[in-house]
Amino acid sequence: METKRLRIAMQKSGRLSQDSQALLKSCGLKINLREDRLIAHVENMPIDILRVRDDDIPGLVMDGVVDLGIVGENVLEETMLERQALGLSVEYKTLRRLDYGDCRLSLAIPQEQVWSGPESLAGARIATTYPNLLKRFLAEQGVKFKPVMLTGSVEVAPRAGLADAICDLVSSGATLEANGLKEVQVIYRSKATLIQAAQELPADKQALVDKLMPRLQGMLQARESKYIMLHAPKDKLAEISALLPGAENPTIMDLAGDTNHVAMHVVSSESLFWETMEKLKALGASSILVLPIEKMME
Ligand SMILES: Nc1ncnc2c1ncn2[C@@H]1O[C@H](COP(=O)(O)OP(=O)(O)OP(=O)(O)O)[C@@H](O)[C@H]1O
Ligand SMILES: O=P(O)(O)OC[C@H]1O[C@H](OP(=O)(O)OP(=O)(O)O)[C@H](O)[C@@H]1O
Ligand SMILES: [Mg+2]
Fold it and tell me: Into which EC class is this enzyme placed (predicted)?
């Protein structure tokens, strides 16, 4: 269905919802969101946000039902494999990998069991929501297994006697531990990603995407960067710069009444660890301030 408004699909409720909504808001979208509504209107731009189950997002983009989607790479890759097997279109464009939704798809077994590699799962029943990613991994290892498809509560499957092992998402590992399981093999690492339908968009919609992308890029870059201010001995400027990632072009300013030191301001592409601060201090730097950056545009 053709609409004049750009359609963006994102997860309705779950791990990616808050961050995705916050990211779009930070790009200037005023989202009129009502919890019970599946479509949220953006008040100040011709954009509609479709709030759906995350599993549906890759298909909506690949079928061109929505223009953009924010989804975990794990779900994207799993859907690709599933659609490939069904002979459906798997085309899309990745616009930007995002900085949230970090997790890994891993194999886990009961804590008391000994792990001697993927081959120890030969013939095992493995519970998962990601049968295609699991099949691909174990096929590469030459291991045959019996998939047990579960769409939730995968971690309880071994205790419930439904499976011998599981293949599920892990972040802190707390859920595995709470269920008496241990992570033994990572099979896929994932983050949230912004994707676009493969077919060409009408010019006005593409113009809107082209307007939003530098804002998104700027927000993500700002989140990854820090503004660092410090006083430095003039004869140690090169050594101090070398300690600050992305500080090729520092701003150097004279300090009133001090001819031996200068003020140095840099945008660093990474957060500054305490260890680096201590090294800066050892080189004679003082008054070191590390500030977050709200927005950036190059
Ligand atoms: N513990 C985690 N930490 C960080 N990101 C995660 C974590 N678990 C999952 N994710 C990412 O967030 C996505 C959504 O996870 P969530 O658990 O909300 O999915 P769901 O239960 O399948 O939701 P839905 O109801 O939309 O189908 C996952 O596909 C993954 O990319
Ligand atoms: O390693 P951890 O930090 O414990 O995270 C892993 C858990 O997080 C996700 O579920 P979520 O909590 O989103 O709930 P869900 O099962 O309802 O999807 C995932 O499916 C795991 O169960
Ligand atoms: Mg889901």
Answer: transferase
The closest alpha carbon to 232, from 246, 249, 250, belongs to 250
Which residue carries 């659609």 as its tokens? 83
pLDDT digits (tens, 9 = 90+) for 130-174: 999 999 999 999 999 999 999 999 999 999 999 999 999 999 999
Residues with CB under 6 A from ligand 2: 14-15, 152, 155, 168-175
Q: Is residue 174 one of the residues assigned to a domain?
A: yes
Q: Which helix (H) or strand (E) holds 186?
A: strand 181-190
Amino acid letter for position 29: L
- State which residues form the domain around 237: 226-292
Q: Whose CA is nearest to atom 18 of ligand 2?
A: 152
Q: What protein residues have CB closer than 5 angstroms to ion ligand 3?
A: 54-55
pTM: 0.91
Burial (Cβ within 10 Å: 0-12, 13-18, ≥19) of residue 101 = buried
Q: How many domains does the chain have?
A: 3
